[in-house]
Amino acid sequence: MPVTRLGDHERLWAVTTPSTAYVVGVEIDPATGEAVPLQKYWGPRIGEAAARQVAEASGGPSTPQGARRHENSFSQPAAGEELLPVDGGTRWGVPSLQVSFGRVRSVELRFTGARAHAEDGADRLDIELEDRHFPLRVILSIRAWHDSDVLERWVSVRNTDDDGLRFPGLSIGVTRLDSGSWFIPDADGYRYSGVFGAWGEEFQLQRAPLPVGELTFTSRQGVTGHQANPWIMIDGGRATEEHGEVFGVALAWSGSWRLTATQRPEGGAAVSAGFGHDGLLWDLRPGEEITTPPVLGLYGDGGFGAASRAWHEYARRHVLPEPAEERPVLYNSWEATAFDVTEAGQLALAEVAASIGVELFVMDDGWFGARDDDHRALGDWWPHRERFPDGLRGLFDGVRALGMRAGLWVEPEMVNRDSDLYRAHPEWVLRMDDRRQDEKRQQLVLNFAREDVREWATGWLDRLVTELGLDYFKWDMNRPFTQAGWPERDTGQDLLWIEHTRSVYRVMATLRERHPGLRIESCSSGGGRVDFGILRHTDEVWPSDNTDALDRQPLQHGFSQLYPAVTMSAWVTDSPNPGTRREVPLRYRFHVAMAGVLGIGGDLGEWSPAELEEAAGLVARYKAVRGVIQHGAQYRLAGTPGRERSAVQYVRDDQVVVLVYNPSGHGGRGPRWLRLTGLDPEALYEVTEGGDTGGVPGRLVQGSRLYGAALMGVGIRPAAWEPVGADHRSDMVVLRRVT
User: Fold this and answer.
1) Which of 199, 477, 494, 735 has fewest C-beta within 10 Å?
2) What is the CATH number of domain 3-58+77-318?
3) What positions carry a catalytic annotation?
């Protein structure tokens, strides 16, 4: 039973996963009577007797003075171990819950009960609390899956004065509601890992000592954002890719968010994360309830690599709607045509795409309304009357006749002023009375929190899929929120920051329910909406508008820390790259894009016959191994991606795929021998693809057989890694276990 009450203690529980334990309890402060939910233990799995001992050793508010960390009249370090530190009493740290009851701005909770119950494939614990005076119920929920070490936590708050008669006129305002706080056990020193970035350079991995004080990562843009991603990993400063304890916290949310890691001067660290935005006030009217998105916690002792693989497996088992599918090779027409789309032009591209093995053809922007540029027609979702006078059916029938599936770019959350939709419904956009409406990219944001907007979007999206037989939407979202008001809701308008995102989820879920074969890609000017929240409703994400192969390597490295390859859309585009003007060989560009879900976005009409022939061969090689890449265990090998010799390895059943890169042919940086990992040391592995026919010791030769112990202990010398040669050399090596 993953959730166990410890002994006869009615307020102490152990929540276990296959490899870990999470012990929590509710202490009652003897001086005040306040209920304080505390994390007692988080680490390797332990038995029930040991769990009781660690709970007793950790103490709580009732522990005698001096048995805990140094406390004084200005400090209460025990608050760092609370599951949901409230704004109230003698706490001065980061609150996970802030509530005002009229002019009263302090929360005082009492324990009212707990319930452990089984769910499908999981077990769940709900800890119930309520304010000792005001009608506020708080439920802390913890879910443990039977097949994952990732724990899920969330919080619900409710105004229990359902008819408003007990406290007439009382205003309950929630100003911060995190999904929970996680205590990171004591260590000699703390180091954090996370990603930062900007448009075109998302997911840049950073590791640094966790400073004493508060370190906050956030997005205030209404979407997940390019500048950071809602996760953090913390270790004791000595973890490596394959060794050491790592604690990870991730928020499954696609709107504005905030994650704060606190290292206290007295020792100890905690991470609190949740949705929200500075300055918001959520009115909790009688009978109303707000539930947070899940905040996820993961402990492991196998270094950053094992942590990533555990996150990847969790995504496959409990997040992605269709995790077992092999994603098709895609072609997107944007970089070939931009807004200049016609049926004849798109079909010409489709014919070339089909000839090199593409399986899904996606027409991008420019197909609708009067969309001749990015200044007009967003919101007018019918075929461009001049470019497609007979509609889109002929185009997509032609695509299907070529043996490919059909996809279409849409941007449902945006509108141009110069559109029929805005002229008909100016009240549908985010706006504030007596304030201007700032545009970004000549766009305004539609308020998806409105039921009429949600129904409108569901209607035309459903109609497109039905009438055109679409298999795929590229769902884009190209600007952040500004003037994010909802005047018709008066004091309740701040709920739009929650309900907009949840309405996007609902529209996607409705479309998938009505059309089980429909697949959706999440895009937000590149990687602006990538998180475990949106991945519950989409099949893959677009991590960046930057398609330069060398820039993509560190970006994909950071992406892989949390998200699996099966979710990462990666394109091969033209050389010189349209954005950076860097020239990179076609083979290298393909090998970088093969590390995820392979797509092609170049102007195929300009590719030479030799390039098309080479592309067809590389597409065929990818198809032969994509099951391993998309669904296998991923290992990050060797040097810094995009800067020096590096490699990434995938293992699934008896197959092994290794993508090898050397961006600088004459550079001396990086390793010379490539040591594989994750293999059976006693097994023999045969090289079935890649390698070299030369006689250099350690050089792979196709058909050769090597023991797993040799591949992991000494390694191989890839031809692409030789120190003298051309820039941008790469290879794909495939091995098969034969004994």
Assistant:
1) 199
2) 2.70.98.60
3) 476, 545
